[in-house]
Specification:
Layout lengths: L13 E4 L4 E4 L7 E7 L9 H19 L3 E8 L4 H13 L7 E4 L12 E4 L12 E4 L16 H4 L5 H5 L6 H9 L11 H21 L9 H12 L4 H11 L7 H15 L16
Parallel strand pairs: 3-4, 3-6, 4-5, 6-7
Antiparallel strand pairs: 1-2
Length: 289
């Protein structure tokens, strides 16, 4: 893939601090390291989509930071899980394309390294830690519409021990379909994980992967400058991933953009999206039914 210059855009990464409701530049001083602490929901059971969503937000933030020339370092604090639950969490993070955190520990929000983190990402329902500095991101809840559909576990079951794997990929769903569904909503907004929503995300993800594979057969072309500026600005403005997805929807049908440029754009932005959009490149596609 051709080299893409990001430093020339001079776009500062900013996040809305949940404490003040204001956009705050991160990191707060002119340096290249961004420390992120993800706080998972503490409970008596395991961790379901309610707890997994902040991991996705933290992962997208870290990927966006890298795209803007920063060096992210992610820390994870979590409940005291059983061995089986901890193993399920590791498998869920891997299945959802979440990069492993640098450090994992039981909740100690006031201890190092989280006390000095630039950004704290909190699962829905976690208590505020006013004594901890840095920017606070409150992640929206998952549900409650999910509990009204038979094919997706409700919120009460999402926290039940031993059900994490089934929650991440209900009925054999590609876990990255769940990731795409989550990315289609602002991180503060609630997400209803319904069968209909999952099917729409599955269809779009499948279509994009096939398109990327088709475009990969054409000569490479540069990413359109307007698309690059727009998507960088969207990501830098409070992680506007839904706007990036909308841009890709439009780009896929633009007649003025060569196939090779579409391929490079989708492949480049997948560094943030983490949807494995090039999965079908080089594979023979099955004929449509």
């Amino acid at each position: 893939m051709p080299a893409v210059s990001t430093t020339s855009l001079h776009i500062m990464l900013r996040i809305v601090d949940a404490r003040t409701g204001r956009l705050v530049e991160i990191p707060p001083v002119h340096r290249h390291l961004l420390s992120i602490c993800v706080h998972l929901l503490a409970g008596d059971g395991g961790i379901g989509l309610v707890g997994l969503r902040p991991l996705l937000v933290g992962d997208v933030l870290a990927r966006t930071a890298e795209l803007h020339g920063l060096q992210p370092r992610t820390f994870l604090t979590l409940p005291d899980l059983s061995h089986e639950q901890a193993g399920a969490l590791d498998r869920a993070m891997s299945a959802l394309g979440v990069h492993p955190p640098a450090t994992v520990g039981v909740h100690h929000p006031n201890g190092t390294p989280c006390a000095a983190a630039d950004v704290h990402v909190h699962a829905y329902g976690t208590a505020a830690q006013d004594a901890v500095g840095g920017v606070r991101i409150d992640v929206g809840q998952v549900g409650p519409a999910a509990s009204r559909e038979r094919d997706v576990p409700g919120r009460a079951h999402l926290l039940a021990p031993g059900l994490l794997d089934a929650v991440v990929a209900p009925e054999g769903t590609d876990p990255l379909v769940v990731r795409m569904l989550m990315l289609g909503h602002a991180h503060r907004a609630a997400v209803a994980v319904t069968g209909t929503a999952l099917e729409e995300a599955r269809r779009t993800l499948g279509d994009w992967r096939q398109l990327v594979a088709d475009w990969a057969q054409e000569p490479s072309r540069p990413i359109p400058a307007d698309v690059l500026r727009h998507t960088h600005a969207a990501l830098a403005d409070d992680l506007g991933v839904p706007a990036v997805l909308d841009t890709l929807v439009t780009l896929a049908t633009r007649a003025d953009v060569p196939a090779g440029a579409k391929f490079e754009t989708f492949a480049f932005l997948d560094r943030v999206l983490g949807l494995d959009l090039a999965r079908e490149v080089g594979h023979q596609h099955r004929a449509a039914p």
